[in-house]
Amino acid sequence: MAERVYKITLLGNEGVGKTALLVRFLSQRFIGEYDPTIEDCYRRTVKVDGEDVTLDILDTACRSSTSKLKDTFLSTGDGFIVIYSIVDRRSYITVPRYKEMIEESRDRGDHRPLPFLLIGNKVDLEEHRTVAKSEGQALANRYEWLFHEASAAEYDGVDKSFCDLIRQIRAQRRVISSPDFASSCSDLDSQDDEGASEGKKKHKARKKLSDSSIHYKRKLFGPWHHS
Ligand SMILES: Nc1nc2c(ncn2[C@@H]2O[C@H](COP(=O)(O)OP(=O)(O)O)[C@@H](O)[C@H]2O)c(=O)[nH]1
Ligand SMILES: [Mg+2]
């Protein structure tokens, strides 16, 4: 049976609104100022599509900070939310660094495609926008991540963002634990020549999972354009 605790990590430059988005999602409130140096983990059970799911969510502080908790979430987490602010171009340009940071933390033998969500926050500040929505979408398309713009201040797109990520984690777990997936992996094993490398087999299994994730995203949002 699939494990129902999902470990989710929020990443992004200081000031983009990580804490504000999380507080909105967990309490529906927007307080305004949050201590930027605090890294904290929150456990909450929420219902998504009628099914309970327990979330452990890590709200990270700054990119360079290290902690055992952060290491654990990066190396074994189930889903990641990278946030930039649409009024802070630098925070958008830094997004690939977070992707690298996570990839470097993962076990090389772990070939599961990871559910990622990119959020462009602070859409209420439209008149100060320096990152076009199409730029956020293009980056997400390139990485095959989910993408939403949101506003913690105006409670816009917040629940939808978190719920989409939860749905994707759930969908991937179902694929992994399905007998169909298990048997297709063993088919791959038996089809492979004696001499086929372990790496090649894993690549095929990974591709199959990745295809299922793309299929899922298409179901949610329809076909999208690659940049
Ligand atoms: N206008 C606006 N301000 C926001 C929004 N989200 C966060 N902020 C503000 O941006 C600042 C940094 O937010 P915070 O959540 O502490 O950012 P973090 O460092 O990424 O955790 C605070 O002053 C928040 O009030 C938003 O959606 N719109
Ligand atoms: Mg914070």
Name the CATH architecture. Answer: 3-Layer(aba) Sandwich
Secondary-structure-derived class? alpha/beta
Helices and strands, in N-to-C order? Answer: EHEEHEHHEHEHHH
- Terminal CA distance: 38 Å
CATH topology: Rossmann fold
Output mean pLDDT.
Answer: 82
Helical segment count: 8
Question: Main sheet?
Answer: 6 strands, mixed
Number of strands: 6
CATH class: Alpha Beta
Sheet with the most strands: spatial strand order: 2-3-1-4-5-6
Question: Any idea what the shape is?
Answer: globular
Low-confidence stretches: 212-227
Strand content: 15-25%
Radius of gyration: 18 Å
List the helices and strands and how they pair.
Layout: E1 5-11, H1 18-27, E2 40-48, E3 51-59, H2 68-76, E4 79-85, H3 89-93, H4 95-105, E5 116-121, H5 133-143, E6 146-149, H6 158-177, H7 179-191, H8 198-221
Parallel strand pairs: 1-3, 1-4, 4-5, 5-6
Antiparallel strand pairs: 2-3
Helix pairs in contact: 6-8
The structure holds guanosine-5'-diphosphate (GDP) and magnesium ion.
Summarize the structure.
This protein is 45% helix and 19% strand.
Question: Would you mind describing this structure in some detail?
Answer:
With 227 residues, this protein is α/β, with parallel strands linked by helices. It has a single domain, classed as P-loop containing nucleotide triphosphate hydrolases (Rossmann fold, 3-Layer(aba) Sandwich), CATH 3.40.50.300. It contains 8 helices and 6 strands. It has a 6-stranded mixed sheet, sandwiched between helices. Helix 5 links the parallel strand 5 and strand 6. Helix 6 crosses helix 8. The structure holds guanosine-5'-diphosphate (GDP) and magnesium ion. The site of guanosine-5'-diphosphate has 19 residues, from helix 1.
